[in-house]
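Sat 14:20. Reprocessing the chain from the morning session after the first attempt stalled halfway. Input below, unchanged.
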Amino acid sequence: MKSRLFSFLLIWALVPLASAQEASPDVLIKGLSEDVIAAIRQDKDIQAGDADKISALVEAKILPHFDFRRTTQVAMGVNWRRASADQQERLTSEFRLLLVRTYSGALASYRDQIIELKPLRASPGDSEVTVRSQVKQSGAEPITIDYAMEKTASGWKIFDVSIGGISLAANYRTAFGEEVRNHGVDGLIALLADKNRQAAARPKRAA
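Finished this time. Tokens:
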């Protein structure tokens, strides 16, 4: 039960943003989260774990509005500056694939949980904000989820999410740092690529 709930929480970590860029970040998250959940509820194949349909939903609704480069930078910490421009691009690409597979599996864990957004504490000129929320489900304590968002030239983007106070991106930092110390940036890239190849070789069924 605990594992299923944590997996579901990743859905909210990737709630996409609306194309109407004038709306506030919290309103964007609320509206689009409702769209994503409606799509899940209406498609029995997605509910059953159809990996192709889940991936299509992630591609259409989520990926265009997530700043994976910034997320990778957060996960790398000080090691980001030690990577060349080419290595940064390769790291972002491989980390993106790793996260997309994780998030696609999380979509299959939806079980009628409810999300409640807290009032947004931000000034009109802020370029970075934190949108705070709680996820509730019967028989479990509410879980807090904080969305770190930045305003870019192409609109608001999510670049990190904290679940119960734990940053998903920063959670990778220790493992990434150890790999860089032992095998360099190229070693980390190779490790991520290997994990992605292994995941792609598994049966196409969401967990």
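Residues 173-201 form the longest helix (29 residues).
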